[in-house]
Structures are given as structure tokens and as C-alpha cells.
Design a protein that fits this description.
A: 138 residues; mainly alpha; elongated; B: 60 residues; 2 helices
């Protein structure tokens, strides 16, 4: 059994990782949709950019709260992981100290969720850009 | 600048942009992307309306 596994590993050599397979997800994380745009999927990239950025900016405008790196409550850690997905706009938000949240607004909680979802959607967009780069998707 | 959306507007905006991303990332061809995006949008909004009516019935 171990022998057949070793034979299989020999028969299918690992394909070399192309430059695009590394670059597209990285740039796609930093700027939503850019991973598609550098692979000439202009309309898809633009739609992803507009959708993810609008959700994130709306979240900020609704006085949502941004999650920072933390080691406390599990929900805060998950919120941080979601927010981080937004990439460049998340870094910009932290740098400018935006997204402090205002509990005076009833809709602030919606804003917080909008930003987390924007980050999670960007993770999906990054995975899609990677699949295009390795030829798994057109 | 502060934007205040009511519950339904927030759900509609959320459904619209999430459906666009789902459509693009979960399907191969343009036609399938549009169809799946519309399906997701309908399901999101349908779910909101169904949950709203369910809560109204429970409250009665």
C-alpha cells in the first residue's frame, strides 16, 4: 500500500507554481477585484471591486466598528479574521483610526457586519482569482 | 458622514452586493453567473420576507 502511494507520487510530479498564481491572490487581497483585473477579467474585477468596497464603505458610514487583532473573545477573533479579508481598505481604516463604532446609532451593528462580510467575500474573490491563475476556472 | 438604513434597506443592499460576488465566484459562464446571482438575490430577499412574516405570526 505504501509502495503504491509512493508510485503515485512519482507518477504525478508537482506542477511548478506560476508567478500569476502567487501574484493574483496577493494583489486581489490588497485591492478587491484586482486579482481578476490583472488576468484581464475586467468586468468581473470591476464588479467585485464595487461590491466589496461599497459594502465596506457603507459599513463605515453606518458607524460600524472595526475589529483589531486580539486574543480575547472568540467572536472578536472571528470578526477580526473577517475584517482582515478586506485587505488594503482594512489597513487604511486602521491607519486612519476609522471604524470606532458609535453605539448611539441603532444601525451601527449592521455596519459592523457589513465590514466583516466584505472581508469574507474578498477571501472568496481571492480564491477565485487563484483558480483562474492555475487554470481551474476560465 | 453617517448613513442610516432601515432593516429592509440594509438587507436589500447586503443581498445585492453579496449576490454579485457569489454569482461571479461560484459559476463558470457569464449566463450562469447572472442566473445564480439573481437566484441568490431572490433567496436572500425571500428569506428576509419569510422570516419577517414568521416573526409577525409568532407575535400574534
Amino acid at each position: 500500500m505504501a509502495n503504491s502511494t509512493a508510485q503515485k507520487a512519482k507518477a504525478a510530479p508537482a506542477e511548478p507554481v506560476s508567478m500569476m498564481a502567487v501574484l493574483a491572490p496577493a494583489i486581489g487581497w490588497l485591492i478587491p477585484g484586482a486579482g481578476h483585473m490583472i488576468q484581464k477579467r475586467w468586468i468581473r474585477g470591476l464588479l467585485l471591486f464595487v461590491s466589496i468596497m461599497t459594502l465596506f464603505v457603507l459599513g463605515l458610514a453606518m458607524q460600524g466598528r472595526i475589529y483589531k487583532a486580539n486574543g480575547g473573545d472568540i467572536l472578536d477573533i472571528l470578526g477580526f479574521m473577517g475584517d482582515v479579508g478586506a485587505g488594503g481598505i482594512y489597513i487604511l481604516t486602521l491607519a486612519n483610526d476609522w471604524g470606532q463604532g458609535a453605539i448611539a446609532f441603532a444601525t451601527a451593528e449592521y455596519g459592523t457586519r457589513f465590514m466583516v462580510v466584505a472581508g469574507l467575500l474578498n477571501f472568496i474573490a481571492v480564491a477565485d482569482a487563484y483558480h483562474i491563475a492555475i487554470g481551474k476556472k476560465k | 458622514m453617517t448613513i442610516t438604513l432601515n432593516h429592509f434597506s440594509a438587507a436589500a443592499v447586503f443581498a445585492l452586493f453579496t449576490s454579485i460576488v457569489f454569482g461571479i465566484t461560484h459559476r463558470e459562464t457569464t449566463r450562469d453567473m447572472v442566473r445564480y446571482g439573481l437566484y441568490c438575490f431572490a433567496m436572500f430577499l425571500g428569506g428576509v420576507l419569510a422570516a419577517g412574516w414568521a416573526m409577525w405570526l409568532l407575535r400574534k
